Amino acid sequence: MSTVTAMPTSPGGTRYKEVKEAMLAALTVQEWKGGEVIPSEKKLAERFGVSIGTLRKAIDELCAENILIRHQGLGTFVAMHRRDRHFFRYFRVTRRDGERTYPVVTLIDFRRVKASPAIAARLGIDDGARLYSFVNALALHEKVIMIDHIMLPETLFPGLTESTLRSRQDTLYNFYQDAFGINVAGTDERLRVGRVSESESAILQLDAGSAVMEVERVAYSINQKPVEYRLTHINTEEYDFVASTMKNGAVT
Amino acid sequence: MSTVTAMPTSPGGTRYKEVKEAMLAALTVQEWKGGEVIPSEKKLAERFGVSIGTLRKAIDELCAENILIRHQGLGTFVAMHRRDRHFFRYFRVTRRDGERTYPVVTLIDFRRVKASPAIAARLGIDDGARLYSFVNALALHEKVIMIDHIMLPETLFPGLTESTLRSRQDTLYNFYQDAFGINVAGTDERLRVGRVSESESAILQLDAGSAVMEVERVAYSINQKPVEYRLTHINTEEYDFVASTMKNGAVT
DNA sequence: AAGTGGTCTAGACCACTAC
DNA sequence: TAGTGGTCTAGACCACTTA
Fold first, then answer.
1. Mind telling me which residue stretches traverse the membrane in this protein (chains A, B) (predicted)?
2. Domain with B219 in it: what CATH number?
């Protein structure tokens, strides 16, 4: 493996930004994989030819973006999506009284399709490019209250099958990381009032054409490329979508 | 004026956290007001008895929380809400094609009420405490698409009147800061599908009882206290509510 | 030219984890 | 005890703004 040391591609003007980009490059080529320790600060400082303080500033930003995680006395790790740690960063549905619960996920459809122009545009791929398309029903407190339609470019998830998808142990984003080396680093979501389709109405136990919350999500990898398109319908009769601008999610 | 120098209240264990808390205290007692320059890093380092590097780390965090703003060569300023800078941090409604526009705001009601138990709980005040309550209609592209019901505790906004509210020059949050020294530092929002009331349906040009997006927002000050309660109804036929987890709002 | 914040250094010392 | 990250220092030099 060729280690990344040169840093001419994204100047940015400052040393620590260059170091940060070099580290992102090392992460995207999988030199350091999800969950692994990266070299110590001292070694990285030597490798990139900067002082420890400068190296630390680069790591500071990567930690702030949830790409790395520091553990005093242990080392710095490549952040891994885990049900018990980062799940609620991406799952923002809460019961009206504020209680958060893990959803029970059931895969109810899996197929291969071609990208429509709208979805191709969102994913930054060609019209008609091949996609995996599957549907999950999510239950909270033993009642299905949301349905996810998820689409993944085949080129990014080579060899994905319904059975490997079903047999995953942790969250979907953990699975992307583990099986395909894709680190979801952020999402862009657009919310609006939508209408349930006929097939969905049965699953959500709503009248056909009922109003639900519609969420269109594009997930981005650490290299800023779109990796997943998701359309979600939520029954918000008893649940809220939470959108806070503060770190400390004020517990009402 | 007594300057804040002692830092025993919130130990946190580290020097820079103490400095940060001391600076937040100075901000809440209005030693430095919105828009003003704060003393230079060198002077602040002397005042708090720390090195410049440590002082900088405290300011780094305050800048990351949008409380301070640095300007190289000029100084560090207390962030001021401005229509042209921070407005879209709190106004997250975008046309379906992604275009952002400033809303045209019209005050359509102003009164004084007593807090209901539900709203008192959200604002952390007593049941029945006095509130200012007013309603704004917001138009985008020359059509009213959202209605804000806003409630403010009288104790935090002493002497607020309909005319001072109407005659404000900039945004509402700029007004809070300018006229009452209240710095909105973050919000907590809960979204769901709601129904328009009869009076709203006329303004929004929707049928009575139509489904709209309902947003319940509590705004918090830099000292973590709730300062505003807001209930918004949005017609999302042509607009989306944007909720991104990334800094760089990916422009679709 | 003087003053401000922005970057970078080289090292000390502390706190935590593992063995 | 050795190795890791966490904090803090004291100062150099650069880039920007105003006068």
1. none
2. 3.40.1410.10
Task: Say whether A246 and B122 touch across the interface (CB within 8 A).
Answer: no
Q: Judge if B163 and B234 occupy the same domain.
A: yes
For residue B248, is it within any domain?
Answer: no
Report the SS3 class of residue B47. Answer: helix
Strand C bases contacted by the protein (CB, 7 Å): 3-12, 15-18
Same domain, yes or no: B113 and B193: yes
- State the burial class of residue A32 (Cβ atoms within 10 Å of its Cβ: 0-12, 13-18, 19+): middle
Token code pair at residue B86: 């921070």
Distance B137 CA to D15 C1' (A): 46
Q: Are residues A237 and A120 in the same domain?
A: yes
Does the global pTM surpass 0.85? yes
Pull the structure tokens for residue B235: 């017609």
DSSP category for residue B113: E
Task: Check whether residue A113 and residue A206 sit in a common domain.
Answer: yes
Cβ neighbours of A218 in B, within 8 Å? 250, 252
A62 contacts on B by Cβ (under 8 Å): none
Tokens of A55: 């190296």
Whole domain around residue B156: which residue ranges? 87-241
Per-residue pLDDT of chain A (252 residues; tens, 9 = 90+): 444 444 443 445 788 999 999 999 999 999 999 999 999 999 999 999 999 999 999 999 999 999 999 999 999 999 999 988 889 999 999 999 999 999 999 999 999 999 999 999 999 999 999 999 999 999 999 999 999 999 999 999 999 999 999 999 999 999 999 999 999 999 999 999 999 999 999 999 999 999 999 999 999 999 999 999 999 999 999 999 999 987 654 333
The Cα–Cα gap between A171 and B101 comes to: 37
